[in-house]
């Protein structure tokens, strides 16, 4: 049940960011749910592999290269999905930063409700 709530909160964050960022478009809330699922799958499967493969450059940049990996995952989700559009790397980087911030904010509110 917690996974479904987190996916719905991520979908809400995707819709909100698509409204405010000029280079991000989502066809509807159903597409946002699919984006949340695809991002969860890519983050669970592909991101650990990319982190291990790029460990030297990540250490060299003191972890900032992880932002590039997150932006690449956003762009990869854009390629997979038809109802989700991100116009360029810098928009994907900004989208990933803001999405991470919104997710942490929403998930912390979810954790406060449990206590």
UniProtKB/TrEMBL annotation:
Top-rank taxon, per record: Bacteria
Name of the protein described by the UniProt record: Putative membrane protein
Keywords noted in UniProt: Membrane, Transmembrane, Transmembrane helix
Annotated TM spans: 28-46, 53-77, 89-110
Keyword Magnesium: no
Taxonomic lineage from the root: Bacteria, Pseudomonadati, Bacteroidota, Flavobacteriia, Flavobacteriales
Source organism (scientific name): Gelidibacter algens
InterPro entries the record matches: Phage_holin_4_2
């Amino acid at each position: 049940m917690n996974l479904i709530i987190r996916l719905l909160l991520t979908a809400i964050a995707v819709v909100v960011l698509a409204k405010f960022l000029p280079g991000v478009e989502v066809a509807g809330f159903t597409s946002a749910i699919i984006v949340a699922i695809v991002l969860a799958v890519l983050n669970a499967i592909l991101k650990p592999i990319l982190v291990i493969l790029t460990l030297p450059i990540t250490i060299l940049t003191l972890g900032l290269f992880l932002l590039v990996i997150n932006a690449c995952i956003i762009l990869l989700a854009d390629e997979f999905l038809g109802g989700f559009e991100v116009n360029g790397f810098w928009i994907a980087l900004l989208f990933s930063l803001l999405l991470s911030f919104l997710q942490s904010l929403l998930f912390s509110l979810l954790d406060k409700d449990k206590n």
